[in-house]
Amino acid sequence: MGPGHAAPRDRSAGYSAVVPLDLDRLAAALPELSRAQLQRLMDAWEGRGRDEPSDFISWLHGRGALPAGSLRDLSAATPVVLTSPEAAASSLRLLGELGRGSMGEVLLAQDERLHRTIVVKRLHARLADEPQMVRRFVAEAQLTAQLDHPGIVPVHAVDARAGEPPTYAMKLVRGQTLRTWFNETRAAVARPGHRPTPPAPGLAARLELFLQMCEPIAYAHSRGVIHRDLKPDNIMVGPYGEVFVMDWGIARLTGSADVPGPGRAGSPDGEGTLDGAAIGTPVYMSPEQARGENSTMDGRSDQYTLGLLLYEMATLNRARASIKNAAKLMIAAARGHVEPVVAYGEPIPRELRAVILRATAPDPVRRYADVSALADDVRRVLRGEPVLAAPDTLVQRAGRWIARRRERVAVGLVVAALLALLAVLVTVLGGLGVREWDRVAADARAARLVAVTAQAADHARALDGALSSYEGLLRALAAVAERALPGDATAPVYLAPAFADPTRAPPDMVSSKVYRGPASFDHPDLALAPGVDEHTRDTARELRVLASLRDVMADTLLNSASAPARGSASSDRALVLDQGTPVVWSYVATGDGVLVGFPGVGRYPPDYDPRQQPWYHEGLSRTGPGWGRPYVDESGMGLLVSCSMPVRSPAGGAVAGLDLTVKYLVETWLAPGGEGEGFLVDDSGAVIVRSGGAQEVPGTTQPLPWPSASAPIAAAPNGHLVVGETLLAWSRLTHGWTYLLAEGSE
User: Fold this and answer.
1) Strands 726-732 and 5-6
2) Contact indicator for 459, 672 with CB cutoff of 8 Å
3) What pTM did the predictor assign?
4) Helix (H), strand (E) at residue 313
5) Is there a catalytic annotation at residue 229?
6) Alpha-carbon distance 447 to 454, whole Å?
7) How many C-beta atoms lie closer than 10 Å to residue 27's C-beta?
8) Domains, the chain, with CATH or none
9) Catalytic one among 229, 233, 275, 609?
10) Most distant CA pair in the chain: distance in Å?
11) pLDDT for 616-656, tens place per residue?
């Protein structure tokens, strides 16, 4: 034993160290004491009797050897507690099991010395021989112990003796899980004639409870810790409404590496915690969490999950309730799928809907800056104030002003009515009717300006969310392709020419209304660039691997529909081939000139080379998903807009993509539903898609019909402009495009 360490006492003496005390660290934290003095103190600590305090820092402080000003520095520099496991164990009487998870079990225990009931968490015996799991378990205890907040359960002691499953003791929290609380609240609200005792919490009470959930998470984020597994089962509601955030087992410091886990666990319905590349619970995962982006994940991922819990607080239903299968949930989570906000009982204010949408934005940049900002907006909802997520229009501001001054407004209206009557009489008698009509017309123009601007913002917000969800689908496809390309597969291969030959075509070929001819739902088509030999070993392997991507490619189309719940094989086939989905093609191309496309139709020109297509070059030039200009589909689907991104592969040059039809963009997102016309404009002011008139000829640039509007639109992310008799209102999307709404005559 070297002079720089104080060893734990012999096991027969009853003391064990989680981490050895280090003389160098002590010297750095206590510059007032010489190394010789510190060494003597450490030796004295080792020679003390069993009845002495087991906390070295407290022991130093009690002897007067630790200046008060150094207590904090020493605690941070030496997060080490020497424990007396045998003595501690002898004072605990285990009462029974409270629950168990993938890593450990939770036991109820009685501390006989302090006469209190506590909770003991113990690593499963089968994992006790795995060093990485022991490190992970002890790291959980140490991390939780450093989070000193009323909403986070304190850790009392850790026991990490060699050869035995490690344990740590915590405060016992009495109450029920948020999941049970949700179930009871939902049942009470569902019986309007029944008067439960206590009464079912209304929307305001539920939002107050949500705010309590935000506080410990905001505190943890301020300490650089993200939870990563927030869900109703990990939140406790006490008998007096107090809230505790539990189970920090997969929490980590922002920017730190994960301790390796035992592999993937979880449950088929997606409510169990997954442990692997994508860590967490699928039904409550953020998109970046579902994509396994652990190294770049920050507090905005927890904020997204809080947004899902806020959805559940508002609606009393899960935000992904229609999806039951864990694999499908992972795809939905990766694209940021959140179902429409539907009230369950009380109506949900517009402002609260906007807060939920912002907190659960698929792109982290579009969420709140932090959890505190999210909580502040929820407080504004409770106070009836405008929220950051959806600033009031002129009319709404007027409505709030009136609501705050009801009595004075009522009196004022009576007075105003009398004055108006008098003014009309004076105007008519005085021949001033023309001026009054001018004022009325000006008011009408102002109201129209407010309405058109709000309509443009609403359309842009909806389109932005849709494009983000499609990008999430593409990320999931690219991630699966990235994992598959280095390997091999045994999937059946159908090259494009085989689809035109009944003797070689896939057996499930049927006539498709959407794809205007025979198509296969069970098998994708594969195309080879001119000169690529399908019989070489590498090409044959690549064809099999690409064909094996069929399931994720099918899910890309199916989950792009507004209701992503999957049905039977026949209903899925009918949805894609007969009814149509927003995404009409999904595909992956490699740098070797091999392409797989879904669904399988096989209609490619004889000289087709995927590496020469615009979407391929655009995808290679990006670091993530991006949208291109319209192009004519080789298979007869008309004008398409593609989204593509690179796929990391051993050979390099792989790209994944998906396509939307221009017709779908126009009919679903650009047509304003009344008079006027919608446009998608790029950052140069050129028209990408328009809802009326002729579409762009591929390969050319179509300018705006109002040349003077290009500069103002490029300069401001949001705004309006009157050109002649046309009112233009626009809003910038996060995808490099601008949505423009044009209203004709004034």
Assistant:
1) unpaired
2) yes
3) 0.47
4) helix 299-315
5) yes
6) 11
7) 17
8) 5-83 (no CATH), 86-171 (3.30.200.20), 176-391 (1.10.510.10), 485-612 (no CATH), 666-743 (3.30.450)
9) 229
10) 110
11) 999 998 888 888 888 888 777 888 899 999 998 877 899 99
